[in-house]
Automatic annotation (TrEMBL), chain A:
Keyword ATP-binding attributed: yes
Keywords associated with the record: ATP-binding, Nucleotide-binding, Transport
UniProt-recorded name of the protein: ABC transporter ATP-binding protein
Domain ABC transporter per the UniProt entry, residue ranges: 9-239
Species this chain originates from: Xanthobacter aminoxidans
GO terms of molecular function: ATP binding
A Pfam entry, by short name: ABC_tran
InterPro entries: AAA+_ATPase (IPR003593), ABC_SmlMolc_Importer (IPR050093), ABC_transporter-like_ATP-bd (IPR003439), ABC_transporter-like_CS (IPR017871), Mo/tungstate-bd_C_term_dom (IPR008995), P-loop_NTPase (IPR027417), Transp-assoc_OB_typ2 (IPR013611)
Alphabetical list of PROSITE patterns matching this protein: ABC_TRANSPORTER_1 (PS00211), ABC_TRANSPORTER_2 (PS50893)
Keyword ATP-binding: yes
Domain of life: Bacteria
Protein family: Belongs to the ABC transporter superfamily.
N-terminal signal peptide: none
Length: 368, 347, 285
């Protein structure tokens, strides 16, 4: 595919408010050429606002949008050369597949021969050549998405925006399309920004993820960092499943803080915290970062199994700790029957994802 | 929506026929339904005739304003069923049509004590004439400085685009056309001279009203400065403060009788007679002759007074000098004239 | 019970009152109208024939009146569309509060009596009306313009009076258009005009056709407006039918004129419907 090499996209201090509601608060993002970046967050976090600002549908209250270092904030949408695939694809219902794809080149005043060539090329790229004369409503969801993508790529956009691209597809098709789009994006090297509220989608497809909450950028990092080293309690709870154990800081050292759990046991976390000794903290640990067993050992704490759920290759245990809080543990299913009754909870080394201040009265529920 | 035109079309048939099916007066045993004309007539009959009738009979009356042609349409549609009203009020031409069509009953003198006192020429076999309608020229004295004296004044170049007449749907327009035809040498059998003359008036016409009601409003709004008008109506407008003066034309005042009739098959004939007889009573006619109504009385017991005496007639003999038309012949040709009129005045 | 096994007859029975109403007050009178139109004599003696139709069709005046009526409706409808489309478009772009205000203003003519509306227009368009006073004051013309009793006046007033019939279906259609489509068009490099003509306008065609049908049928049959604003010198079909039926008591001829008028308008409506069918079939499943 003859896409031009990727372009860099920069958001500099982007803020936007709808009346009293702040949808974006001084967002800075540096997106490298050819990168696929997801804007991830719950609804209302400001990710769609950012997408609209990049596309030019919305004019930010302050801040600047730059492509390859040059501001495009003053340009209307139709002169930005930024392609967008909408959640509902927004194919023109009165035009055939080919007419939809030709729309951009015609609007740009390309000669007919060139337009025809682009249309054919795009149809091949998305493997839709057999459907060129169909109307959008005669296509399946996946096919519509391919056309939407082809229509978008036909203008050779500098940036590709994907707005919740897979939410309208059923689960089986979704994975296929994710792989397909990832492949196309890699091939073309086009800088892509995808808005999603689906963490798996974001984790699976992105080079980097920007996690947003209430208009604030919580973390901008590769998926593994987001998952393993969340920068905030919000990121920790929004991405993946988190167990939050109440504890107090027992001591700090070069290798990280030690915390005292509810039953008095002190464990090394391998994480640093600015909090002083004695401060209440929440110890975040993922279900796969722990293990239950019938036998105790160093660093293991007593617990009671309250529920067991076998899910194919794995087992999910719900166990109650001595302070009454409950945690979830995922581990491989052994040949033996699942454990029951009193057990020991082991912390795997270096698997604690974070220590966060415990503000009593705050809600620690999972974010989504 | 689509079929609104058809609704218009069977207005005359279906809608009117619908009226005939509706049982009338089921609850009000002593209620008379009487037709009246719109405008001045509805007002004067409501204020003077209705209270008099109520006092005389103890019954009540519903006065329903309708054009003469509308009354005939409704009576025709209801023929063979209950008529929608018991008393008709018609101009001479339509009255002849209604009589021909058997829509109205012969008038029983025994039931109408005031009938005998009418001037003989107002004693019709199918009902009394309740007034004379006389027409002339009305003008706005603010904009027309020289009072007109004849129809020919309407043709003056200075009145280009300022003259108003009505279509032939109104007796006013019909009488005007008949009179200019007469003056141009025509007769009811030969209207060519009249139509020829009318065509030469076209440059001066500001408006040809579709009906009498719309015509009156044109003087009020200053749309027309001069035009054909009915004596009563002009005087009523003047009494309301509209700048308008009425003059008779010097070639004789065209006039016609307005009559009242008992509808054939009337539901309440006794009340209907009492109502018509009230209208020709000296008391009612005397009241109606006063301003602002100026209704020309037909009872010999009511001497001409006020504006009627000033403008129209001092003695019954003066009425005889007015110009009358052969309405039977008019009726024969009205359809053809209407088409001709449509054709000639069309923009 | 048989009805419980097969609910269809019961469902059908629910439509019976409407069907009866429709038959009694619409089909029957219409049938009566058509029947009367075949009476050859004004007195309706029972002699049937096509005489009334022949009489209408052989007189050039009648045909001219028919043509003028259909044309004045077309002009008023076009004017309605020209002003109504931007208005409807605006209604879909403004805040909910402004939309309510605009729709109220649009609907206002419907809730006012047609006679009142028409007389208000007489005052506005007259020689000493607001429009002419303004024109004279601004020195745009030395003489008052003849707006009343002119076709121009009739077209203006018809367009205003029937505006809701154009605007309301347009608003409905425009609101149904996915706003993403216009965004997509812009993102593909199209400017506002291209977006309007290539996306918004074609997709609102069903509303345009619905509005046009409603407005057109209302305009050509608007007896009160046509006769009061137009006066007798501008003769249109509804007035001609009224004249024949009421003034001249010539019901067979009036009926024949009505049938001819109805068929003419229905033909035009049928063409518009056919157009909308073909387009709508492409646009919506």
């Amino acid at each position: 595919m003859s896409q031009s090499a990727g372009h860099a996209l920069t958001l500099r201090g982007i803020s936007h408010a709808f009346g009293q509601v702040v949808a974006a608060n001084a967002i800075d993002l540096d997106i490298r050429p050819g990168e696929l970046v997801s804007l991830l967050g719950p609804s209302g976090c400001g990710k769609t606002t950012l997408l609209k600002i990049i596309a030019g549908f919305l004019r930010q209250t302050s801040g600047d949008v730059l492509v390859d270092g040059a501001s495009i904030s003053h340009l209307p949408t139709n002169r930005r050369r930024i392609g967008i695939v909408f959640q509902n694809y927004a194919l023109f219902p009165h035009m055939s597949v080919a007419q939809n794809i030709a729309y951009g080149p015609i609007a740009a005043g390309r000669p007919k021969a060139e337009t025809d060539a682009v249309v054919s090329e795009m149809l091949d790229v998305v493997q839709m050549a057999a459907f060129r004369d169909r109307l959008p409503r005669e296509l399946s969801g996946g096919q519509q998405q391919r056309v939407a993508l082809a229509r978008c790529l036909a203008i050779r956009p500098r940036i590709l925006l994907l707005d919740e691209p897979f939410s309208a597809l059923d689960k089986n098709l979704r994975l296929d399309m994710q792989i397909e789009i990832k492949r196309l994006q890699r091939q073309s090297g086009i800088t892509t920004v995808m808005v999603t509220h689906d963490q798996e989608e974001a984790l699976g497809m992105s080079d980097r993820i920007a996690v947003l909450s209430r208009g604030n950028l919580e973390q901008f990092a590769p998926p593994s960092d987001i998952y393993d080293r969340p920068a905030s309690l919000f990121v920790n709870t929004f991405v993946g499943t988190a167990n939050l154990l109440r504890a107090t800081v027992a001591g700090t050292s070069a290798t990280g803080a030690a915390v005292r759990l509810a039953d008095g046991m002190v464990i090394e976390t391998g994480r640093e915290t600015p909090l002083p000794v004695g401060a209440a903290v929440l110890v975040a640990v993922r279900p796969e970062g722990m293990r239950v067993s019938a036998t105790g050992g160093a660093g293991a704490i007593g617990a009671e199994i309250t529920a067991v759920m076998p899910i194919g290759p794995a087992l999910i245990y719900e166990v109650a700790l001595i302070d009454g809080s409950s945690v979830k543990v995922v581990q491989e299913r052994e040949a033996d029957a699942p454990l029951e009754g009193s057990v020991f909870l082991h912390f795997k080394p270096n698997r604690i994802t974070g220590l966060f201040p415990d503000h009593s009265g705050d809600t620690h529920k999972k974010g989504n | 929506m689509t079929f609104e035109m058809s609704r218009r079309g069977f207005l005359a048939s279906a809608a009117a026929a619908g009226l005939a099916f509706a049982p009338r007066g089921a609850f009000a045993a002593d209620e008379l339904v009487a037709a009246t004309f719109g405008g001045t007539w509805a007002n004067v009959q409501k204020q003077i005739l209705a209270p008099y009738f109520v006092k005389r009979t103890g019954a009540s009356v519903v006065q329903s304003p309708m054009l003469a042609t509308e009354q005939i349409a409704k009576l025709t549609a209801a023929k063979g069923n209950q008529p929608p009203f018991d008393v008709a009020m018609l101009d001479e031409g339509p009255a002849l049509e209604a009589i021909d069509a058997g829509l109205i009953a012969k008038y029983d003198l025994a039931k109408s004590p005031n009938f005998a006192a009418l001037n003989p020429k107002f004693q019709g076999a199918y009902g009394p004439a309740i007034t004379m309608q006389a027409i002339g020229i009305a003008y706005n004295p603010k904009t027309v400085k020289t009072p007109p004296t004849s129809w020919d004044d309407l043709w003056k170049p200075e009145y280009k685009g300022r003259v108003g007449i009505t279509s032939l749907a109104s007796t006013l327009g019909l009488a005007f056309l008949l009179d200019i035809n007469r003056l141009a040498g025509g007769t009811e059998a030969n209207m060519e001279p009249g139509f020829k003359k009318l065509k030469t008036l076209l440059p001066n016409l500001a408006a040809v009203s579709a009906n009498f009601g719309a015509h009156g409003a044109l003087f009020q709004q200053g749309e027309i400065d001069i035009g054909v008008q009915n004596f009563n109506f002009a005087e009523e407008l003047k009494a309301k403060g509209v700048p308008i003066e009425f003059v008779r034309v010097d070639t004789g005042t065209p006039a016609w009788k307005t009559t009242m009739h008992i509808v054939a098959g009337a539901l309440k004939p006794e009340l209907a007679y009492a109502y018509v007889d009230s209208q020709i009573s000296p008391d009612v006619q005397g009241e109606m002759q006063k301003s602002p109504w100026n209704v020309i009385p037909t009872s010999s017991k009511v001497p001409y007074a006020g504006l009627v005496a000033q403008q129209i007639a001092k003695t019954p003999a003066d009425l005889d000098k007015m110009v009358f038309f052969d309405w039977a012949k008019v009726n024969q040709n009205r359809a053809a004239w209407t088409q001709q009129f449509n054709r000639d005045i069309r923009v | 019970m048989a009805g419980a096994l097969n609910p269809k007859p019961k469902d059908w029975a629910l439509a019976l009152p409407l069907a009866a109403f429709f038959t009694l007050f619409f089909i029957a009178p219409l049938g009566l109208l058509v029947a009367i139109s075949f009476e050859t004599e004004r007195q309706m003696t029972g002699t049937l024939g096509l005489g009334q139709y022949a009489a209408f069709l052989t007189d050039g005046l009648n045909l001219a009146v028919l043509r003028d009526t259909l044309l004045v409706g077309a002009k008023a409808t076009l004017l309605c569309l020209l002003f109504g489309y931007p208005l409807a478009w605006l209604c879909t772009r403004v805040s909910a509060r402004w939309q309510a205000v605009l729709i109220f203003l649009v609907v206002l003519p419907i809730v006012t009596s047609v006679v009142v509306r028409t007389f208000a227009w007489i005052v506005i368009l007259g020689r000493h009306g607001i429009v002419n006073e303004a024109i004279l004051a601004l020195g745009l013309s030395a003489q008052p313009l003849k707006l009343l009793f002119s076709e121009t006046g009739v077209v203006i007033v018809l367009a205003q009076v029937q505006m809701p019939l154009m605007v309301l279906p347009l608003i409905t259609t425009l609101q149904r258009i996915d706003p993403n489509l216009e965004s997509a068009s812009q993102a593909l490099g199209a400017g506002a005009w291209r977006t309007f003509f290539k996306v918004t306008l074609p997709l609102s065609l069903p509303g345009i056709i619905a509005g046009t049908i409603l407005t057109y049928t209302a305009c050509v049959t608007a007896f009160v407006t046509q006769s009061l604003i137009g006066g007798s010198r501008l003769l249109f079909m509804p007035m001609m039918i009224f004249q024949q039926a009421m003034d001249l008591q010539n019901w067979p001829f009036a009926a024949a004129v009505s049938v001819i008028f109805m068929v003419s308008v229905l033909l035009i409506v049928a063409m518009l419907v056919a157009l909308s069918r073909s387009r709508a079939a492409r646009l919506y499943s």
